[in-house]
Structures are given as structure tokens and as C-alpha cells.
Amino acid sequence: MHPFVADTGFNTGNSFSSTATISLAGATNPAPAAVYQSVAGRRRSTTPSAVLTAGNSYLVRLHFVELSFTAAGQRTFNVAINGTSVLANFDIFANAGANHALIRGIQHDRE
Question: Which of the two residues, 55 and 67, has the higher pLDDT score?
Fold first, then answer.
């Protein structure tokens, strides 16, 4: 069993599935390929998907794949954890290309 949980607590966006073959090459401890084929195009989480204990440090692993856009610069976005910016102007395609799993591990201290 993999410790992957679908995102919850969102207030906008849409979802879709893809049958694209996902490359996991070079990804350390990737999710199963099917995780990357289920896309949640959501913009803002209103509740955490896990309860984190104050005063502890956590490694937050963000899993990405670009299934829609075909060139760098077509989609960039920001990621914040508890109001702290952790990725700015992030572009999945520029970092990994299309249909390729990309994982970013971010150390986060829960205050």
C-alpha cells in the first residue's frame, strides 16, 4: 500500500483523468503512475489534508506532472504552505517536460 492520499478541502478547480504514459525515470520514490494520471486542477486548499503537530518539522513531498501544456512558460504557479511561499513561478514543463513525474521535497516546520 502506498501512502498517497487524494487532495481534499478545495474550493475551486476541476478534475480529469488521462491515459498518457507517465515517465517515472529519475523520480525518487515516485507515486504509482496512476496517481499522476488523475489530475486535480484545483487552485486553493482551504483545509489541510493531514493534521500536523505544532513544533514538529515535516518533509512535504509535492508530486507534479504536466499533462496539458506543451511548452515552457504556458503555465506557471506559486505554492505556499501555511502562508509561506515554497515555490514561485513554478513551471512543471520547464523542469520536467510533458508526461514526466516531478517531485519536490520541501522541509516545513509546523508552528
Answer: 67
Alpha carbons within 13 angstroms on the beta-carbon side of residue 60 total 20
Q: What is the CA radius of gyration of the chain?
A: 14
DSSP H helices, the chain, are 33-37, 92-96
β-pair type (102-109, 57-64): antiparallel
pTM for the model stands at: 0.79
Cα(6)–Cα(102) distance, rounded to whole angstroms?
A: 17
How far does CA 3 lie from the centroid of its chain?
14
Q: Which residues lie closer than 8 Å to 59 by C-beta, 6 or more apart?
A: 105, 106, 107, 108
Other Cβ atoms less than 10 A from the Cβ of 30: the count is 20
pLDDT band at 45 (very low <50, low <70, confident <90, very high): low
Write down how long the chain is. Answer: 111
Domain extents in the chain: 14-46+53-109
